[in-house]
UniProtKB/TrEMBL annotation:
<keyword id="KW-0812">Transmembrane</keyword>
<feature type="transmembrane region" description="Helical">
    <location>
        <begin position="170"/>
        <end position="191"/>
    </location>
</feature>
<keyword id="KW-0813">Transport</keyword>
<feature type="transmembrane region" description="Helical">
    <location>
        <begin position="144"/>
        <end position="164"/>
    </location>
</feature>
<feature type="transmembrane region" description="Helical">
    <location>
        <begin position="366"/>
        <end position="390"/>
    </location>
</feature>
<keyword id="KW-0924">Ammonia transport</keyword>
<keyword id="KW-1133">Transmembrane helix</keyword>
<dbReference type="Pfam" id="PF00909">
    <property type="entry name" value="Ammonium_transp"/>
</dbReference>
<dbReference type="InterPro" id="IPR029020">
    <property type="entry name" value="Ammonium/urea_transptr"/>
</dbReference>
<feature type="transmembrane region" description="Helical">
    <location>
        <begin position="117"/>
        <end position="137"/>
    </location>
</feature>
<dbReference type="GO" id="GO:0005886">
    <property type="term" value="C:plasma membrane"/>
</dbReference>
<feature type="transmembrane region" description="Helical">
    <location>
        <begin position="53"/>
        <end position="71"/>
    </location>
</feature>
<feature type="transmembrane region" description="Helical">
    <location>
        <begin position="232"/>
        <end position="258"/>
    </location>
</feature>
<dbReference type="InterPro" id="IPR001905">
    <property type="entry name" value="Ammonium_transpt"/>
</dbReference>
<feature type="transmembrane region" description="Helical">
    <location>
        <begin position="203"/>
        <end position="220"/>
    </location>
</feature>
<dbReference type="InterPro" id="IPR018212">
    <property type="entry name" value="Na/solute_symporter_CS"/>
</dbReference>
<feature type="domain" description="Ammonium transporter AmtB-like">
    <location>
        <begin position="17"/>
        <end position="412"/>
    </location>
</feature>
Amino acid sequence: MSDWNATTPWLNKGDNAWQLTTATFVGLQSVPGLMVFYAGVVKKKWAVNSAFMAFYAFAAVMICWVCWVYEMSFGEQWVPFLGKPGAVSTLSIRGALSQAQFPASGATMAFPMATMAYFQFVFAAITLILIAGSWLARMNFIAWMIFVPLWLTFSYSVCCFSIWGGGWLAQMGILDFAGGYVGAWIIGPRLKQDREDFEPNNIPMMLVGAGLLWLGWNGFNGGGPFNAGADAGLAVLNTNIATVMSLLTWTILDAIFFKKPSIIGACQGMITGLVVITPGAGLVAGWGALAMGALSGSIPWLSMNILGKTKLFALHVDDALGVFHTHAVAGFLGGILTGVFATVEGCEAFALTNPGGAVAGNWRQVYLLFVVAVNLVVTPIILYAIGLVVPLRMSEEDLLIGDAASHGEDAYAFYHDGAHEIDLARTASAGSLLRLSGHAPPEIAALKL
């Protein structure tokens, strides 16, 4: 048997092991992280639907990724902002075991293509799952099934190639990007009663998801350097510094202005800290991470509690989980602040030729408007096109019922054996609505009014 190591002098086992580990951490952010976070933070009637949107997206992205989207994102340049479509080379043994590289930029890594393809897949998957957070409790699941591959193909791949794959923005020195969430306007708001009463059905479950999201983010940023070097450690440390600072800032603001510190608010601050530090986790100093965390715990807080309560957002752009504030606002803020706080030493450790950010006299990193423009144009086109085929929004009857109407399943089946009479009475009342909609499970259909 031939010595595999002798034929792969480029392979670094430590880098390969670290990259696979960080990819798994990022995957855990989605499945089960965001699945249980969404299931816990929504009303009971939406727990199954919310978790299923994440579960489906994780699976659908993988197939699209290996069949055509990876090459569009990281393959040979086709046009200035897109790679050439095609099946990822990892579908063959030879391609999977070959050295990972980005042809457009000429970058190579010390691990195989199979590792790179999986690492980039989990990033793509969580991007779609985060978008879902804006559209919970009203989007037609069939429309979501169609949206995922289309947005991945026509929006994510363009931004991904332009920034990371060696496209024109990477050549200009831009370091990262944030996604867009304009679909909430197009799909429309939740039911009025859901907007007015949307208490989480299971806060401990939400906290489990939040914890998985937080620790999984170590892989998100720690895997960014593509090696197990010193910069990976810096990225992980800065990630946690910014997250803690943001969480504490948000909690303090809640305590000052609302007189009660909120665990849900603390989770929002945690998320904004994770998002804001991502573009510059390995590029800024610790003091820069502290400053970014303080700003991410305050500016999105102001956005959510002032802008989010205006008629525009309250009635038209109904963002179920505040994704616009925690991801769009915090993401844009992170891109800007990375351009401000990136250090020369951090860029050198990341193998970048960028002369740091504004603190080092370089303001070039601040240009992020291309990504915003792509999402503002592509996302509405995709949604309106889907709307010509299937409704983007659930029917009013299904919105009243929730999971049982959409999937024929309930998160907590209290009406089964052992239920108290009051549970059966409540279920029978709900059953009348289910029968009218034609979606009653056998257990409910058998109940008498």
